[in-house]
Amino acid sequence: METLPQLPQDIIVNILSRLPVKSLLQFKCVSKPWRSLISDPHFAKLQLTQSQRNGNFSSQRVLLITEPPESAACEASGDDDDSKLILKLEYPTAMKRTPDSDELMDGQVDLGGSCNGLVCLVFENDRVFLLNPTIRETKELAKLNAFDRMGTFSYGFGFDFSTNDYKVVRAARPSSEDDASSETEVEILELKSNIWRRIEGFKSGIEIEGPGIFLHGALYWLGEKESDGLEIVNVIVSFQLAEEKFQLMPLPDQIEESNDSRVLGVSGDCLCLFNGCGERYFEAWLLKDSNKSSWTRLFGVQRDLVPRHRYWEKALCYTKSGKVVIDYGGRCLVWYDPKEKTSKTYTSRSNWGWFDPAIYNESLISPNCYDA
């Protein structure tokens, strides 16, 4: 019996790099050479590049930070049952209360953002972890420097293409309105050096909230700014990771300034603004070119057609199949189709009874990718 000829290694690498992460993790069992290849950091970067180039929406998921953690597919079908929709996960040992425990460490957990399959989690504004939920690896970063005062913190996590390095950003603003400080204090950590350093912040009168969204070398937060007449207006605050500079971007001109139920999300590799439009309309806008602030309206529906719950809603993303993934107070996720006016709901059955959601893409990137 003749044996089949072996494919050249570069062709094998090219073929495997185009496959989804789930398949590649299974293929680690094929042979030792395949396991070594799929575990290689250079192959992980190649697979990520191929996935991003092909616009692989199927790899986009929502991490439900709860106990135990869960992961939901963003591209949900109305026919999917919970077993296909939700993955049950567990936290790596470093993030558990004790090595033998199944529970997450005690204390407040803040989402620092996500990038290239890595999710940044901050415990008690002190301990910072990078977690890849797909390959279930984690890394604890250097402890944050203590600020002279207590305040409100916002975080961001992204990739600086100019230095080929990941960066974590923390912005702290005073807890008291009487504080005389002229700017929000900002610290940044580069993963390769693992050292926190202070950079120039932004002036008072501007506030940001929540974790920053990373896209195309920049972080984006929804913020508030005092206008000349002391009126509070919404803006988008961007932070270019290469230049380490903050900038303000306007919202679409057609949006009513009086409305306050707005959130930022993602649609593929574009920034998405979800606008509650009071009690009348629910709409979404897509930012295709941040340099030109060119907004395109995705949809608008009557407000009473959107599923309502007693919890505050936060739209997370707009999927390729045209659904809006909405978090209702960390109690349930809803996939709402504004065209068909249909929805699917998943209610978490975790021990906590609630969750914090984080959008991420499946990848093989290890949080320990720069370790010697």
From TrEMBL:
SMART domains in alphabetical order: FBOX
Domain of life the protein comes from: Eukaryota
Domain F-box: 1-46
InterPro entries: F-box-assoc_dom_typ1 (IPR006527), F-box-assoc_interact_dom (IPR017451), F-box-like_dom_sf (IPR036047), F-box_dom (IPR001810), SCF_F-box_component (IPR050796)
Gene3D superfamilies tied to this protein: 1.20.1280.50
Pfam families for this protein: F-box, FBA_1
Xref: PANTHER family: BNACNNG10540D PROTEIN (PTHR31672), F-BOX PROTEIN CPR30-LIKE (PTHR31672:SF13)
NCBIfam families on file: F_box_assoc_1 (TIGR01640)
Annotated protein name in UniProt: F-box protein CPR30
The organism of origin for this protein: Theobroma cacao (Cacao)
